[in-house]
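Revision sheet: structure tokens.
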Amino acid sequence: MLDNAKTTRWTLRFALLTLLPLALLLPSSLLAWEGKAVRIVDGDTIVVLRDGKEQVRVRVYGIDCPEKKQPYGRKATRFAAAMVGNELVDVEHIDTDRYGRTVGIVRTLKGKHDLGEALLQAGLAWVYARYCTRPVCSRYVQVEAEARSRGEGLWSEQMPTPPWRWRADK
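Predicted:
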């Protein structure tokens, strides 16, 4: 009886020590969920209705749009609203930020279009290099560079101020 309890305890410890680290290595795509984008806060923050009842504030991963009072801030908000407003979206959970928001890659359910990439392509966002560390970020950097070279959106300005610098100055 005592040996059986000892064996069970060791089996549980082994399972926890083995499976827990493996669970941490799971791709974030396994943490994806669907919902309806019910509010666009600004270009890179939306509210998604999850399971028809829980409103989740989602910060778009890897990008930073101009603030509403900055040039192109309102345009970024309108762009996000046109793309995902009242639409079903897929949120690939990456992290939770210090404000309690889900940080994730947001894609339209129809077509699987990436909101962050679309904002970069339109010249309405910067890659947020400080936080953008996933493999998708190399694509984001490329898309931003292409928008810059075309003079899209905020890249038509001589020296657009990144939102993180703008916020620091306020």
